[in-house]
Amino acid sequence: MASASADAAAGEESLRRALSEKQVEVDAQGSVVRELKASNASKELISAAVEALSALKLEKASIEKRLQEIMSASNGGHQNKEAFRQSVVNTLERRLFYIPSFKIYRGVAGLYDYGPPGCAVKSNVLAFWRQHFVLEENMLEVDCPCVTPEVVLKASGHVDKFTDLMVKDEKTGTCYRADHLLKDFCKEKLEKDLTISTEKAAELKHVLAMLDDFSAEELGAKIKLYGITAPDTKNPLSEPYPFNLMFQTSIGPSGLSPGYMRPETAQGIFVNFKDLYYYNGNKLPFAAAQIGQAFRNEISPRQGLLRVREFTLAEIEHFVDPEDKSHPKFVEVAKLEFLMFPRELQVSGESAKKMVLDEAVSKGIVNNETLGYFIGRVYLFLTALGIDKERLRFRQHLANEMAHYAADCWDAEIECSYGWIECVGIADRSAYDLRAHTAMDEKTAMEMKAELETKGEVEFQVCTLGKNVTIKKNMVAISKEKKKEHQRVFTPSVIEPSFGIGRIIYCLFEHSFYTRPSKAGDEQLNVFSFPPLVAPIKCTVFPLVQNEKYEEVAKRIAKSLTAAGISYKIDITGTSIGKRYARTDELGVPLAITVDETDSVTIRDRDSKKQVRVNVDEVASVVKRVMDGQSTWADVLWEYPSHHSASADE
Amino acid sequence: MASASADAAAGEESLRRALSEKQVEVDAQGSVVRELKASNASKELISAAVEALSALKLEKASIEKRLQEIMSASNGGHQNKEAFRQSVVNTLERRLFYIPSFKIYRGVAGLYDYGPPGCAVKSNVLAFWRQHFVLEENMLEVDCPCVTPEVVLKASGHVDKFTDLMVKDEKTGTCYRADHLLKDFCKEKLEKDLTISTEKAAELKHVLAMLDDFSAEELGAKIKLYGITAPDTKNPLSEPYPFNLMFQTSIGPSGLSPGYMRPETAQGIFVNFKDLYYYNGNKLPFAAAQIGQAFRNEISPRQGLLRVREFTLAEIEHFVDPEDKSHPKFVEVAKLEFLMFPRELQVSGESAKKMVLDEAVSKGIVNNETLGYFIGRVYLFLTALGIDKERLRFRQHLANEMAHYAADCWDAEIECSYGWIECVGIADRSAYDLRAHTAMDEKTAMEMKAELETKGEVEFQVCTLGKNVTIKKNMVAISKEKKKEHQRVFTPSVIEPSFGIGRIIYCLFEHSFYTRPSKAGDEQLNVFSFPPLVAPIKCTVFPLVQNEKYEEVAKRIAKSLTAAGISYKIDITGTSIGKRYARTDELGVPLAITVDETDSVTIRDRDSKKQVRVNVDEVASVVKRVMDGQSTWADVLWEYPSHHSASADE
Q1: Does residue A134 belong to any structural domain of this protein?
Q2: Which of A380, B241, B276, B287 is most deeply buried (CB count within 10 A of its CB)?
Q3: Domain WHEP-TRS, which positions (chains A, B) (predicted)?
Q4: What is the pLDDT of residues A187-199, one digit of tens each?
Q5: CB distance B116–A247 less than 8 Å?
Q6: Number of CB pairs < 8 Å for A and B?
Q7: Which chain B residues are Cβ-neighbours of A108 within 8 angstroms?
Q8: Which residues of chain A are within 8 Å of residue B445 when distances are taken between CB atoms?
């Protein structure tokens, strides 16, 4: 696919060139015709020149047609993707996987509710995350508040640097993200304007590539250069200026303690490093983890669940000796092979390719074993959830994308209808974060010492008491000592895998969605092929017909499912069994139990639609085995007699 | 206990009365002595009068002493409680169950982090909550954002009424909760001042009882009457005025969309009622549930985890036909018997007493079966976690505590060192919440109709698009219709059990904590007797001595525990086994596995300290059975040979 699109790009470029050359010829020949007419040349001469002009125009039209074809081919893929997305999103919203929040009050952009099936998927994903990372690695999980005082986010750099560039409609005051407007302009031009020259097209593509690196001034200059105006009103736009993306608030009643809703969960771990290190017996390496809400006051959210104002993050901070980043369990993931997209391939315009993880580490493509270990574990996590491994790649950050302190950084990107989406960031952030929070640095301590010596006392704000206390000279001693120790003093490095849970879930929805024709062939039915691990409901219970005996059996089965800890949905409506199957296939329920006798029932598999007969008393244990992964559906097919029923097979 | 304290109260009252009567006698006799002396009476007369005065003074001193004794007895209980709390809290903070947030930046009052063991307890409590309520009742769980636009909280009444009364130090501007200052003043007087009269004491007690009902004016008048000043500076205080407890913020970049961090999770369910009702097949009753963070910007937080600025709520909204509040599963909880504290007992000054739930419902003490069902389920939930059933009571709200729309309301209160704490509220809120959010009421619709008819168009803000759209007359039709339907139209009633997870966890910590002497008898060792369900770590693995063979076995066992999904802690330090047991008893780890041979190991029970020998290959399954509740420790003692080891029994 990547090389096909490269061909297309090459074709587009040569056609654009041919088109503009032809235009020059057409213009020249046009002048010839006009001059001949003006100088009263002979009829023959004039008609020959006109004929030549027509021939040139035909040639130009033919080039235009070919260019149009190439562009609508890539555009057609785009349209298919849009149509696919529309049918996934329609299904998701109709079945309440997620819906815009506060809909009855006309909603708020960038805020979504997870309805019952979406909430269940999310809690399954989080439970598996705990199992796969926290329990497996004995991580120290913590749970810190969202409300964060300014001083913490000042130290971390968020107060000063967590910004996006914004422009305002100069008349209405409506706000836009400056880079989005420039991006939309460039894409629109490239996709719809046949007349732009090869050079112009190359320039626009360069702008798109450099978008993230532009300063406010550079963005402003481009917006001015291209004459970009406010999309809704066509009014002129202000110069771009930074807008801080944190939700600001005030802590306590005084109005004097500014705070923010945390933009990430990591800071809660960093500020507790010393206690956690002590809890771990003062030994490195160890990892802490946190699952929680994070907040970004996006200027103009779009792309549904992918860019929202409040989201669930799951973050790991693995603290390690900067001089020893080996990992004892690396061997367990070393032989995994998957799509990697190192810096070099990106720069040379190649596409991602499959690599074996330990080769990538030993060749130095991945900076160290610990980083490699987490890349491998993330791969296992995502594919276990049901992410298609052919549409998952690990992309290394380019030098200009990485913060100066970072040693290496890889994003797990998942391809969906919006393109390749960063869902997990795995960064070796070196010692930056811990250094930022070094408690009472030497400078502050020395200032306090000076004040104590001159005034005899110093005010010290103790926020836990909500007031200032006065420390007098005789209460404390602050001194600068030189200690000679036979100990290496260092700040640990942090390796941080950070998971955007909502993005992973959205991509999982797209990867799990398919349609198949109904039995009558008159409509397409939607299916989510969730693996048991993430399926929102594990099975359904249907009495085949409305009848007291069957309903009694259904309730007995329901009770045994609850006792086994299996979520189910019981549907005793008189709707046709085929319709009831279709309804729950659309929720991604893996197994359906149809009560069609009082001793035994059928169990149907969602994807194969095959059925087996199972005794009522065994139902819960069969379902539990498949849900826990102890048995596969193939095992069940082998163990139990298969069942065919016309009525039940829609 | 309650009746003992009633006796004490009666004794205190009669002593105060006797004391002031005696004072009158002393004063009178003093005058007699003075008059005799002034009138140069005979020596005998004077000395008889002085003797009588001395006798009266002795009698007064004796009464004072008895009063002092009674007061310090109740105060002594208070001091014991404080000492107990201090040792629980010290252990909790030292072992990182929870710690003040942002400690390295001197903390923020009312914000706490759960460290590793606390976070594990919390996630076990939440997982059990999901199992016990959501799964068992097939509830519709949703997950809504914390950031909430003003319009929603305006409708719910929070913008106008979610306030506490505050006073300011008129010189420094420091803020205090007005009712707290008055409460502290009254308690201090009652506990420490012997001279106040019976009438004064009764007045102060009345003030304490009425505290929640005082208006701003009444509170202000009492503060003035008692001459209460700012605790830190003794400066005068401002008049009390309402302070809204919601954290305010602004949504989006314009600064024109005010929002708040939600003060409860319930509103997210109410605004989605229509969709959830549809999801449930348009059938009542059904319940929705939500677990999530809620925020209250407390004026001056105190009492540790019990009054914080950010906390986890788990809320259920059970929607039911107002004319049929029966519950099909009520029979399952009907015979439960526990402490109930109905309105009548509170008003008549009696204490809570044990009642059988179905009697309480049939006598109309509990308003209806559904409310009764949830009271029973909450009782089962809390006691399964390890809450002491003798220190758990269900207290009915007094008429003046309940909102006017509520039909009935019961709080699950748990007794801890701070007194009886409301941990779960179970309210029949009638139709109030759904009515508050009725989308576009008739009035708004009719106004829009009028505007369309006069101007031909109307502006309509669509927040999901982040802009206004203009609706023209020909696009919509708004009409008022009268429909005659054979349907009863009603707004469902809401029965709301609402759980303060942090409060439950704190009370659980206190109820689980005990100390026992070390083997040497030289110190008290701390133990948390958590049941397996909530224990933060299920077992520990200790090689008895540092030795490669034992460590190999320990690692094999660790691996099998991970595979079985059991959390464990491995400790391969050379510390004495007794010390290692003590360390993990303090974390509430139920079982300890000591590797003292290569084929079999010992498993030790935390509370009985008894040990059994188990083959290495069986260890994980034995631990898992006990943790899942399939076996008890008594079963294990019966099945496996017991083990005695001097070294391992500290």
Answers
A1: no
A2: B287
A3: 18-74
A4: 888 888 888 888 8
A5: no
A6: 256
A7: 147, 149, 251, 257, 259, 463-464
A8: none
Q: Are residues B168 and B194 part of one domain? A: yes
CA nearest A289: which of A523, A132, A471, A115?
A132
Q: Inter-chain contact B463–A250, Cβ cutoff 8 Å? A: no
pLDDT in tens, A152-187: 999 999 999 999 999 999 999 889 999 999 999 998
A483 and A541 share one domain? no
Test A146 with B300 for CB contact under 8 angstroms.
Answer: no
Do residues B540 and B593 touch, judged by C-beta distance below 8 A? yes
Q: Provide the percentage of residues in chain B whose pLDDT is more than 90.
A: 67
Residues B157 and B170 in one domain: no
Domain boundary among B79, B103, B135: B79
> Do A279 and B175 make contact, defined as CB atoms within 8 angstroms?
no
Classify residue A395: in a domain, yes or no: no
Which of A1-5, A280-284, B506-510 tops mean pLDDT? B506-510
- Four-point Cα dihedral B111, B116, B122, B128, nearest 10: 170
Strand partners, B471: B458
CA distance linking residue A127 with residue A121, whole number of Å:
10
Q: Is B328 on the interface with A (CB under 8 A)?
A: no
Residues 6+ apart with CB under 8 A from B212: B179, B401
**3-state DSSP: chain A helix, strand, coil percent, rounded to 5?**
45, 20, 30
Tell me the CATH number at A238. 3.30.40.230
- Chain B residue numbers touching A175 (CB-CB < 8 A): 252-254
CB contact under 8 A, A250 and B252: no
| Closest-CA residue of chain A to B295 | A147
Domain count, chain A: 4
Domain containing B559: what range? Answer: 537-643
Whether the pLDDT of residue B453 is over 90: the answer is no
Question: Between A109, A146, A310, which is nearest B463 by CB?
Answer: A109
Do B272 and A99 count as a contact with CB atoms less than 8 A apart?
yes
Q: Is the pLDDT of residue B558 over 90?
A: yes
Q: Give me the residue label for tokens 């391939």.
A: A345
Asked if residue B631 is part of any domain, the answer here is yes
Residues B226 and B213 in one domain: yes
* Residue A2: per-residue pLDDT: 42
Whether residue B374 has pLDDT greater than 80? yes
Partners of residue A458 in chain B, C-beta under 8 Å? none
C-alpha distances out from residue B498 to B45, B305, B318, B424, Å: 74, 17, 11, 5
Residues of A whose CB is below 8 A from B146: 146, 261, 293, 295, 310
Residue B152 has pLDDT above 90, yes or no: yes
Q: How far away is chain B from the Cα of A469, in angstroms, using its nearest Cα?
A: 11
DSSP labels, B40-75: T--HHHHHHHHHHHHHHHHHHHHHHHHHHHHHHHHH
Q: Which residue of B has its CA nearest to A120?
A: B141
What does the alpha-carbon distance between residue A409 and residue A516 come to, in Å, rounded to a whole number? Answer: 40
Report chain A residues whose CB lies below 8 A from the CB of B462.
Answer: 106-107
The helix, strand and coil proportions of chain B, stated in percent and rounded to the nearest 5, come to 45, 20, 35
Q: With cut-offs at 50, 70 and 90, classify the pLDDT of residue B6.
A: low
Q: Are B627 and B569 in contact (CB under 8 A)?
A: no
Using CA coordinates, name the residue in chain B closest to A110: B464
Per-residue pLDDT tens digits for A305-351: 999 999 999 999 999 999 999 999 999 999 999 999 999 998 888 89
- Give the residue from A135, A153, A61 showing the smallest Cα distance to A437: A153
pLDDT tens column, A525-576: 999 999 999 999 999 999 998 889 999 999 999 999 988 889 999 988 888 9
The model's pLDDT over A55-107, given as tens digits with 9 standing for 90+, comes to 999 999 998 888 888 777 766 677 788 899 999 999 999 999 999 999 999 88
Q: Do B101 and A268 touch (CB under 8 A)?
A: yes
Interchain contact, B116 vs A173, CB within 8 Å: no
Indicate if B217 and B190 belong to the same structural domain. Answer: yes
ipTM comes to: 0.85
